Amino acid sequence: MKQRVRAVLITPRHTMLAIKRIRPGIPAYWVLPGGGVEGSDESLEAALHREVWEEIAGRAEITGLFHTVESDSEQQYIYLARIEKWNFDERSGPEFARDDRGEYQLEEIPLTTEGLAMIDLKPEELAETIREAIADGRLNPAAPEQS
Q: What is the pLDDT of residues 121-140, one digit of tens each?
């Protein structure tokens, strides 16, 4: 079964970093930074650190596991993390060199129910979990750790 890692990356402005995907013939959608776990990764957290560096040239401070999403073919581990600095222009992931992958645009999304409603975050199960965590206070500016 394929394993993936992603992060709810919370910035000092209490926004969340998300990548807008624009692909021909498909409505735009957003995903959280992350990707596939590789055999050389020492742990899920190591894979997440590698993916955050490749995708946004940033260093994340992981605060904990937030949610898991499972299907017949893959498991996604979603972590909460803080991030202070990033530079999308210095991303280095192999997907960015492929013309057939469409466009990637990094955006800061307000970490509010209104902010989340403005985007089509995939998968929907994750979007709903984030909405619930915002509503019940688990994702507040003072402490983005899950309670």
A: 999 999 999 999 999 988 87
